[in-house]
Amino acid sequence: MEAGIADFLAHPWVYLSMPVISAAVGYGTNVVAIYMMFHPMEFVGVYPPFGGWQGIIPRRAAKMAAISVDTITEKLIDQKEIFARLDPDRIADELEGPLNNMVEDITDQVMRQHQPTLWEALPTAVKSQIYRRINKEMPGIVAEIMSELRTNIERMYDLKDMVITNLTRDKALLNTIFQEVGYAEFKFIARSGIYFGGLFGLVQMIVWVFFQAWWLLPAFGLAVGYATNWLALQMIFNPKEIIRVGPFNVQGLFMKRQEEVAGDYGRLVAAEVLTPANIIEGVLKGPYSDKVFAMIGRHVQRAIDEQTSFAKPFVTFTVGTQNYIQMKQSAVERIIDHMPDALHHIEDYADDALDLQNTLTTRLQGLSPEEFEGMLRPAFEQDEWILIAVGAALGFMVGVFQLVVLFGDQIGLG
To answer: What is the DSSP string of 16-50?
Structure first.
C-alpha cells in the first residue's frame, strides 16, 4: 500500500491519466458500437456471416422493416384509411388531361396495328368523333375503377408488402429512419462513455494505488467497455413513465422526446416511405397486381363494348370477330402499360388528401410508452450482446495497454 502511495506521489500524472484514458476508452467503444449498428452496409469479410461484419440494421433489414411496418400499420394507419381519403371523382378529374392524350395515342396504335388500311381511310372528322366519345367516358371509368379498388382494397393491395419492399430494397433509408429517430440517443450513448468511463477510471486509479494486481487494469478496461454501453441503454429506455426522485422528474431519454420524435418520424416516413409514388407502385407491382390489372381490364373492355355497341355488327363484319377481340385486348394491354405514367399526375392531390405526415405525427404522439419504445428499441435489441462484447473487448485491450506501457516497469513487465 505504502509503495503504491509513494509511486503515486512520484508519478502523479501517470496515475491521473487513468481516468482520462478510461473516459477515452468509454467514448471510443461507444462510438464504435454505434457505427457497427449501421455500417458497413454490405458484408465485409471472408465468409458471411462469419469472418467479417455487416451493420446490424442492414443485415437484419427484413426483420427491422417488418418491425417498422407493424408500427405503421397496426398503430398508426391502415390501408383502408389511406384509400378512403382518396375521392374517385377527384382522381378522375386529375387524370382527365393525361388520359385524353393517352386514349388518342392508344387508339391510333391499336388501329394501325390491326386495321391500318381501314384506319387511314377514315376521315379526320370521324377519328375526332371517336376520340371525343372515348374521352367523354374515361373519367367515369376511372371513378368506377377507384371505387372498386377502395371497396376491395384488402384483396388488391398489401401495405405491409409495399413498406417492407421499399425498406429492404433501400438499406440506406432504413438506416436513416433509425438514425434520425434516435439521433439524440446515439449522441448520448457516445457522450456517456466519457462520463461513465471517467468515473470508472477514477475508481480504477484509487484501487490501483492500494492494490496493484496485474489483472486489475485489464479487468477494469473490460468493465468500462461493457458497463458504459449497458448503462447508456438503460438510461435511454428506462424508466418508461416519469418517476419523481426528490426534486427531479426522471424518465428514459427516448421517452422524454416522444413529441419531437413523432414529428421527425412522421416527416421522414411520409416523405420517403408512404409516398403517393410508392403507394401507386405497390398497387401496380405488388402481390395483388394481377387482380388490379384484371379489374382494370374488365372495366376497359366493358367500356369498349358499350362505345362500339351501336356499330358492333358493322365492325365485326368489317374486321372479323376474332380481330375485334384482339383489338380490345391490345387496347387493354396498352392502357395498363401507360397506367403508371398516368397515375403520377395524381401524386400532388394524393399527398394533400392523405396528409400522412400530420396523421403519423399525431398518432405517434399518442402511443403508450411501451408502444413508443418499439420505435427504437429493436435497433438495439438485435445482437445487442455483440455490441456490448465488442466494447468490453476493446476496453480489455486498452487495459492491457495501460498495464504494459504505463506500469510495466513497476510490476516487472518492462
So the answer is: HHHHHHHHHHHHHHHHHHHHHHH--SS-EEEETTE
Which residues are 291's β-sheet partners? none
C-alpha cell at 183: 439521433
Residue 202 has a CB neighbour count (10 Å cut-off) of 15
Separation between Cα atoms, residue 44 and residue 49, nearest integer Å = 9
Helix axis angle for 216-237 and 12-38, nearest 10°, is 50
Three-point CA angle 38, 44, 46, nearest 5° = 150
- Read off the C-alpha cell for 45: 469479410
Q: Are 218 and 403 in contact (CB under 8 A)?
A: yes
Strand partners, 50: 47
pLDDT classification of 320: cutoffs 50, 70, 90: very low
Query: Nearest Cα to 57, choosing from 402, 337, 380?
Result: 380
The Cα-based distances of 231 to 49, 225, 238, 388 in angstroms read 28, 11, 10, 11
If one counts every other C-beta atom within 10 angstroms of the C-beta of residue 318, the result is 12
Q: What's the CA gap between 254 and 64, in Å, rounded?
A: 19
Q: Using one digit for the tens of pLDDT, what is the confidence trace for 204-230?
A: 788 777 877 778 778 877 887 777 777
Region 77-96: mean pLDDT is 84
The domain limits of the chain are 2-406
Confidence of residue 310 (pLDDT cuts 50, 70, 90): very low
Write the CB contacts of 24 (distance below 8 Å, at least 6 apart in sequence): 194, 197
